[in-house]
Design brief:
The complex is a heterodimer. By secondary structure, chain A is α/β, with parallel strands linked by helices. Chain A contains 14 helices and eight strands. Chain B has a four-stranded parallel sheet, sandwiched between helices. The radius of gyration of chain B is 15 Å and the shape is globular. The chains are: A alpha/beta, B alpha/beta. The interface between A and B is large, with 42 and 39 residues.
């Protein structure tokens, strides 16, 4: 059962309001954890030296926590991908990972897939404002500067409504398709998360979700949930639900653009196999076979199997897809993979009443079964 | 050249322990069933990666039949029930892709059910005949 905690004044390194508020609060908390040795390092997003974008950094020196930017409206990688390296096996000391909610959920899926050890990682999250795809973000920053882009994103989230995929709202840049449809934008699956949406005058509160989080924090006066929070979250969710209802493009038509570069697989936090079944050499293709296939249909698209590749990937990972949308950002051919995988994932997950990353205890749908379920899949009339 | 009558081409993935043996029994019992089916023996319905079903459909097969043991009878205890989950995912993905999940059937057929195997193949061929040829058969961009 989660509870809300007011962060003590000492960890408030700035005003809790204004666009930098939540980030400064998190920086204060992390500084304290690092200084008292509760964690040995912090994984968090920080602006790059040139300031054009924001990248993941592993911070060991508390001084370097100044200026971390976990709420930046841009995401270069799904940080769960980084934890696959960083937390492949347990460390002797603990690491605090400051993650977006989709990154927390991907990390939990990876822990179930035995690709990440959570023994030495504390997951810290926050209400995510959503992100722009990198190109959109870079254009917007070149036009008006990072600070203005961030402020506009927060203003859209909290008031004006969200810009459509590919379309730009009045002055705003388009939000990533996956983010426009995202219903799980609060950090409920993490050990600790900063709740700032709808926090109003009281400022952001830290939500403690697990015993691990409670142990790490070791203090804090319980506070009631801010009055306006539930309403604000509900309003955003209603917008997102409406975006989910938009008519998708014909899948086979958009996949015609695929050049099988495998970028979507490479950036996918869930696709972890060291050796992918979809490599042509794994499929046992010889030059002779291409020729035979061409002779059968008269002609075949080269490279081959672009549709087979995507449909196979969907079958393999849709039940764990956290709809982070990184696949769409990585696609050089502008295939709207983020919304495609989000929709396919939602429908697959609904079969098993499964939400990826909701809980470490829930078993992966493909590793378990019920004796009496899924009527209609095997539906012989006898 | 006159248009030939449509004869469905069906690929069947049958589990070694139950359905394949059921097919064998149909054969030794001289039970007649349509010849539209090409059987591939697999060790367990649970060992079938959906990619093989997809590949067969994208290459133009008109139907795919997957045969496994009845629940509780699986040689590997629960492979068939895991196969059912995978098939449920596959059918959901096919539907979202605008393809036809009804071209894929999963059936439990035991080693003693030769007659039921023959009947299932007959029913499936009728069913696929009604669906018509797989539109992907001549689709070259997949």
């Amino acid at each position: 059962m989660s509870s809300m905690v007011q962060l003590s004044e000492s960890s408030k390194a700035g005003s809790a309001r204004g666009p930098q508020g939540p980030a400064a609060l998190l920086a204060g908390l992390l500084r304290e954890l690092l200084e008292r040795g509760a964690v040995a390092a912090v994984l968090a997003p920080k602006p790059t030296p040139a300031g054009t974008t924001v990248t993941q950094v592993l911070i060991a020196d508390p001084e370097q926590l100044d200026g971390i930017d976990p709420l930046a409206p841009v995401q270069m990688v799904n940080a769960a991908h980084i934890l696959r390296e960083l937390a492949r096996e347990p460390l002797e000391q603990k690491i605090a990972a400051v993650l977006r909610p989709c990154e927390v959920r991907a990390t939990i899926e990876l822990a179930k897939l035995k690709q990440v050890s959570l023994d030495s990682v504390v997951l810290i999250s926050h209400d995510c404002p959503g992100v722009h795809d990198l190109n959109v973000y870079l254009d917007a920053v070149a036009g008006s500067g990072a600070e203005a882009v961030r402020e506009r994103r927060l203003a859209e989230l909290l008031g004006e409504g969200e810009a459509g995929g590919g379309k730009k709202s009045a002055g705003g840049a388009a939000l990533r398709n996956a983010c426009r449809q995202c219903m799980h934008f609060t950090g409920d699956s993490a050990d600790l998360s900063l709740a700032w949406i709808g926090a109003g005058e009281s400022g952001a509160l830290l939500e403690v979700h697990t015993d691990k989080g409670r142990e790490l924090l070791g203090r804090g006066a319980e506070a009631p949930a801010p009055a306006g929070r539930a309403e604000s979250l509900e309003r955003i969710r209603a917008q997102r639900l409406a975006a989910q209802g938009e008519e998708p493009e014909e899948l086979l038509t958009v996949l015609e653009r695929c050049i099988r570069c495998y970028n979507c697989r490479e950036v996918c936090p869930i696709c972890y196999c060291k050796e992918c079944l979809m490599k042509p050499e794994k499929m046992g293709y010889s030059p002779e076979r291409y020729l035979r296939r061409a002779q059968k249909k008269g002609l075949i698209k080269m490279p081959v199997d672009t549709v087979l590749y995507h449909l196979t990937r969907m079958n393999h990972m849709a039940s764990s897809c956290v709809a982070c949308g990184l696949c769409e950002q990585a696609c050089p051919m502008d295939i709207p993979l983020g919304s495609i995988f989000a929709r396919v994932g939602r429908n697959v997950q609904a079969l098993f009443d499964y939400v990826p990353g909701r809980s470490l205890e829930e078993e992966l749908p493909v590793t378990t079964f019920k004796e009496d379920e899924l009527p209609g899949v095997e539906d012989a009339k006898r | 050249m006159p248009e030939q009558a449509f004869e469905p081409k069906i690929i069947a993935f049958l589990c070694n322990w139950c359905t394949y043996a059921g097919a064998d029994l149909a054969g030794t019992g001289r039970i007649q069933y349509p010849t539209n089916i090409r059987i591939i023996r697999i060790m367990c319905s649970g060992s079938l990666d959906p990619t093989y079903v997809l590949k067969v459909l994208l290459e133009g097969a008109d139907g795919v039949l997957i045969g496994g043991c009845h629940p509780g009878d699986c040689h590997y205890i629960s492979g068939n029930l895991k196969a059912r989950r995978r098939l449920a995912i596959l059918k959901s993905v096919l539907k979202d892709a605008g393809l036809e999940p009804e071209r894929v059937w999963l059936r439990w057929i035991s080693a003693s059910e030769g007659a039921y195997f023959a009947q299932t193949v007959t029913d499936f061929v009728d069913h696929v005949r009604k669906l018509g040829a797989n539109p992907l058969r001549m689709e070259w961009a997949v």
